[in-house]
Amino acid sequence: NVLILDFGSQYTQLIARRVRELNIYCEIYPYSKIPEDLSGFKAVILSGSPFSVRAEDAPHPDLSQIRGKLPILAVCYGAQYLAHFFGGKVEPSDTREYGRANLSVIKDAETLFEDITENSQVWMSHSDSIIKLPENAVRLASTSDVLNAAYRIEGEETYAIQFHPEVYHSTDGKQLLENFLVKIAGTKQTWTPGAFVDLTVDELKEKIGDDKVVLGLSGGVDSTVAAVLLHKAIGKNLYCIFVNNGLLRKNEFESVLDQYKHMGLNVKGVDASARFLDALKGLSDPEEKRKAIGNTFIEVFDDEAHEITDVTYLAQGTIYPDVIESVSVNGPSVTIKSHHNVGGLPDFMKLKVVEPLRMLFKDEVRRVGKELGIDKELLGRHPFPGPGLAIRILGDITAEKVRILQEVDHIFIQGLRDWMLYDKVWQAGAILLPIQSVGVMGDERTYEQVVALRAVESTDGMTADWVNLPYEFLQKTSNTIINRVKGVNRVVYDISSKPPATIEWE
Ligand code: XMP
């Protein structure tokens, strides 16, 4: 197990993902909450930070429990922190670097740089520089602008690097992490999907015994993988509920329900479309729509859960990014991200919560899903928001608007599949705009709806850019939509990035 101490860098989660990609397990802790018992950890990585070490309110944790006892890799802020407090000097300098730099390794006999090519590209992002190393430190590498790009503290397995090995643009970053974790710290690369499945199934069996578990399936990757894992552990005692809120994609409810049944899951499909539409009647504010949908879901789910006698557990598909306590950038205080999946349903459910995926990143969930034999198409599905098409119909919702959007969305998504573009896109969908525009069809003047198409690439939804879809594809899709979907006479393509726009329009 590897401990990653978070100083608030935007890249901390990326460090964890890279480590996990090496099949090594790791956990992120805020710098202010270093675990008291370190016996389970074999190595420590100190993250970067938006702070300057010279700032009064910068993170200044006591590392005496760790230094000299466990191998340390200090990244960026971590490297400056060690330098600043142990006899070196950190200052704002004219040689600050952002972006690409090339690493010149001085001590290439060092294990840390084994199998790393000379002049390897590394990613820099710092405004302070280490201008003097601590007394007992040896310089390991430089770049053209930064003398102390890497150093080691003599007599300890403590390494410090100014660049970010976790970033994709650091070409040999993964090799460096592997050198540190495997060759220096001796961690084992045993964190594989197969090992996770075996371990988790055993743990679930042990924890749940003969008790019953209820789980809400959404058609998404997380809840599906959670369900299959639990099913493997406790079989028929897992009761799945799949609610149709009437705001899913065209035919989605029927086809996904069918797939679930084929997978052997004990699943009940509940069509509550009318109840949701009713709750949404007259609402046009996005947050009010979200609230109405959330509350209705809880009511429907609760009614269904009551049909099952003697349930003890509520299972959820919560994943690691929803759980990690992140360090607040605005001050030394520690905040916990609030998220719709964390905390679960309200108290009245009175069920114990089980979350078999709470330590996994999204890509790991997919790998586990693959290991469990879940259909590739299901695992590769784009993310889809819980409130569904309700937040892609701007303004108030009617059954007719849902029908129109379902048709448009279906043509767009099916088109992406047919043109082999689906897997190149992170998320895609159509938005029904609350305006009408003039058109002409045959000899008739029309005055009909406008739809926007949106397709983005992203890794986590936090930032995103629009996808440069082929003009020919857009042309064909637009034609098909206008010819086939009654009520639509204009199609536009959204070319906004996030930030400053968001992925959804509401
Ligand atoms: P935005 O629009 O904030 O979306 O750029 C980022 C990601 O979050 C999804 N999203 C939601 N998911 N409930 C959800 O479950 C919501 O209310 C919600 N709003 C946005 C969005 O689809 C995208 O993947």
Automatic annotation (TrEMBL):
Residues noted as binding ATP in the record, renumbered to the chain: S218, G219, G220, V221, D222, S223, T224
Domain GMPS ATP-PPase per the UniProt entry, residue ranges: 191-381
Domain of life of the source: Bacteria
One cellular component (GO) term of this entry: cytosol
SUPFAM superfamilies: Adenine nucleotide alpha hydrolases-like (SSF52402), Class I glutamine amidotransferase-like (SSF52317), GMP synthetase C-terminal dimerisation domain (SSF54810)
Enzyme class (EC, first level): ligase
UniProt xrefs under HAMAP family: GMP_synthase (MF_00344)
Function field: Catalyzes the synthesis of GMP from XMP.
Assembly behavior: Homodimer.
Protein name: GMP synthase [glutamine-hydrolyzing]
Organism of provenance: Christiangramia aestuarii
